[in-house]
Design brief:
The chain contains three helices and four strands. By secondary structure, the chain is of the alpha+beta class. The chain is globular and about 30 Å long. Bound molecules: FE2/S2 (inorganic) cluster. The site of FE2/S2 (inorganic) cluster has 11 residues, from helix 2.
Amino acid sequence: MLIFDIKIASGMENKTEIVICLGSSCFSRGNKTTVRLIDNWLKENRLRDKVYYHGNHCFANCDKGPVLKIDDTIHHHVDAEKAIQILKDYFGL
Ligand code: FES
């Protein structure tokens, strides 16, 4: 309920939240590249204004990283190729 309230307060209630882990472990193991790749993919598919895409510090799942979170689902061991496939599946593209 608290998350729902925060989304309303910030005007994000109709947007998909995509969070990429930019903690040092995930960053060095691939998210350094994936962060830009996702941004470009969202722009190419005209989804940038439909998502709230941002980075976050460590999710405390470093052993399962790189980590990507979409809404309430945390994806583990996400390389660039897997990230794009996850996005395609999520958005039905
Ligand atoms: S650095 Fe990504 S889960 Fe720890």
